[in-house]
Write a structure and sequence with these properties.
Layout (H helix, E strand, L loop, with lengths): L4 E2 L2 E2 L2 H10 L3 E7 L5 E11 L2 E13 L6 E8 L7 H16 L4 E7 L3 H13 L3 E6 L6 H7 L3 E7 H22 L1
Parallel strand pairs: 6-7
Antiparallel strand pairs: 1-2, 3-4, 4-5, 5-6, 7-9, 8-9
Helix pairs in contact: 1-2, 2-5
Length: about 180
């Protein structure tokens, strides 16, 4: 069983989907490709009558069947009234890795397009439990990883259990905040 909890309940992929539904949101995880290289897409959307759901956030990545095989590539949250969408996406990603894959560590690149934005990304990812591994720059040895990650920046790695635990705390804090606002 996953150790992270939100308001006393175990934090599992199923419980995270249920929490999204309680907020009127759809949380879906889609896998593609063979087991040796799984494409991963996690989305949160708001249902709309007689229309396609409104996409609020998504995370894309891929997973290799190894303990350090979860690679997260794109995370985006957009639109109005998106508080808590990010933690739902991250929590679902970490819970899936722990429940349905051998992945225990996740890697991502804090891209370096703009210095200010890069600092914000690094701070955000550290808050999720990611730690720096190494800089990807213009060196010859960085060419391969830069092709994989799509740019230069700070390559970071995080523990999926710790990430899930931190997301659980964020979700619990948001639930407490919403409860006191009523």
């Amino acid at each position: 069983m996953i150790e992270a909890t939100v308001v006393g309940a175990p934090l599992t992929l199923e419980s995270i989907e249920a929490r999204a539904a309680e907020r009127g949101l759809l949380l879906r995880l889609r896998l593609s490709g063979p087991i040796a290289l799984r494409g991963l897409r996690v989305v949160v959307a708001r249902p709309r009558p007689a229309q396609a759901p409104l996409l609020l956030g998504e995370l894309k990545g891929w997973a290799l069947p190894t303990a350090r095989g979860l690679h997260l590539d794109t995370m985006r949250v957009q639109g109005h009234d998106t508080a808590g969408v990010g933690p739902l996406i991250w929590a679902a990603t970490f819970a899936w890795a722990l429940e349905a894959s051998p992945c225990r560590q996740a890697r991502l690149l804090a891209i370096r397009d703009d210095a200010r934005q890069h600092r914000r990304l690094v701070r955000y990812f550290r808050g999720l439990g990611f730690a720096p591994l190494r800089e990807l720059g213009a060196g010859v040895l960085d060419l391969g990883p830069r092709l994989i990650w799509g740019g230069s920046g700070l390559l970071m790695e995080g523990d999926c259990r710790e990430g899930l635990r931190r997301c659980g705390r964020r979700l619990a804090a948001q639930e407490r905040s919403e409860a006191t606002a009523i």
